[in-house]
User: Fold these one by one.
Assistant:
Number 1:
Amino acid sequence: MYNSIVKGIGHYVPEKIVTNDDLAKIMDTSDEWITERTGIKERRYFDPKKDTVQSMGAEASRIALDRAGLKPEDVDMIVFATLSPHYYFPGSGVLMQRELGIPAGVPSLDVRNACSGFMYSLSVADQFIKTGMYKTVLVVGSEIHSSGLDKTTRGRNVAVIFGDGAGAAVLQRSEEKGRGILSTHLHADGNFAEELCIKQPSSANEVWMNHDIVDHPDSRPYMNGNLVFKHAVVRFLEVIGEALKANQMTSEDINLLIPHQANLRISEFVRMKLKLAEGMVFNNIMKYGNTTAASIPIALSEAWEQGKIKEGDTICLAAFGSGFTWASALIKW
Ligand code: ACO
């Protein structure tokens, strides 16, 4: 059995910075409310003339491949996570394949697990490498939320939280024991599907899309914020505990925890419960908001760039989101 190691990591965020004060000009909100409730100070919005989920994913991938010393031709499989795809179908992974020049014939899989999307993708990639099927798998999370948000006072509880961006990781086969991805754990509970969702357009309609549907609030994201918060803190702790137990470790063995950047208050709660010192949990939600599937690879890439991840470190990744879905991974870097 082989191991997967993270050979390279990269991220891309659009140039346009949107501050809390900018949002307060278009909806009834304030920097104080957003900062206190979420920790977010600003987020990035895409440039419709330049950015697509596949172009942003491609840019993050180019950096990750370059850092891995690899080329697009070396990729054996693509796993692409997004909840904001370019087309309804086909998935955005094939569009990124074309854009990056990854050869025709290389498989591309799209993952739709929202905030847990990157973690599910990482786990799928890891399994394909561990079984010996593929040697190099490109795992991408890329999101454009800004075009789908209700940026009026009606949608403010959701709109202030989300931002755009992309991150990528190159996983590669290794025969070194005890290094790379030590474990992944995935979970879902569909009983809460409608607590964090966009319901429309839907194949369940007699006509998939019409003018009434476009104007209906169901075509904008809905979030039961209080319920999401309550479940998130429980599931984060549970799934991190599961990862540690599976590897006979305790929270003292973690060098850095990178949680999905859902909300700074959720991160802080988890940090305190695990009794981790402040610098041991990486947060960048202040700068980017919640970028769902892109948040963990963006954070991983920034943490690595800042020298916060060194060879031999034990890194814990954990996510919770729509579905509900939740997941963790332990990596020996
Ligand atoms: N600006 C100003 N006021 C607002 C805003 C806003 N952007 N949004 C809501 N409010 C108002 C509400 O209308 C409400 O007013 P009222 O008391 O007059 O009715 C008041 O603020 C309090 O609203 P709540 O929803 O109860 O606010 P809460 O303290 O719960 O904070 C929040 C909302 C931040 C969404 C919180 O529930 C939360 O953190 N939830 C976790 C969900 C989360 O982090 N999701 C991230 C995405 S999902 C994921 O990645 C897992």
Note: The domain at 3-174 is CATH 3.40.47.10 (Peroxisomal Thiolase; Chain A, domain 1).
Number 2:
Amino acid sequence: MLDARYCGTMNEFTCVVFISGTGSNLRAILEAIDTGALAGVRVAAVVSDVDAPGLAFAREWGIPAHVIPLADFPSRADWDRALATCTARYQPDLVVLAGFMRLLGHPMLEAFGGRIINTHPALLPAFPGAHGVRDALSYGVKVTGATVIEIDEGVDTGSIIDQRALTVLPGESEEDLHERIKVIEREMLVDVIARRSRNE
Ligand code: GRF
């Protein structure tokens, strides 16, 4: 009788993870795979637009990492196509934008539409864009949080898959608030991937 543990490609739910930063979300996904919280999930590759510190986790886990800088391409359209071509090699069930700080263009959406999720450190539709934590603090909100969306062509406009909230502490700095948001963000992202992998 076949033992699924020794058949690496049987029924695996394959993800390609995109990052631009420290990669704490990527690490949470990889640790959840190791502990069994994401049983049956595999990160086939990590893609970044910069030489991100978080790529160290790809190296640590022995996962192929691709740095694809926009500046290396004659046009944005060429870069968009390069991302899609690289990602397609891994035939992912899900593309996870885990702190990827650029918008994806049409080639990625055309190839993987409905299978690309993004995590954002604010309660969308409030405070979209690159500075969600700062913008929420500046506005003076008392509650903020994190959102996972299925992306579309807009800036953080896709349909909401899940959200987690927390209370802003009096006098809290952007950095401290972001670190607390990232804790709930990581848990939520792992939960969303687990549900997707079970087709829920
Ligand atoms: C996360 O808060 C993500 O929502 C935002 O950037 C942060 C990335 O963190 N876009 P990390 O690189 O996963 O540590």
Note: Strands lie at 13-19, 41-48, 65-67, 94-97, 116-120, 143-150, 159-167.
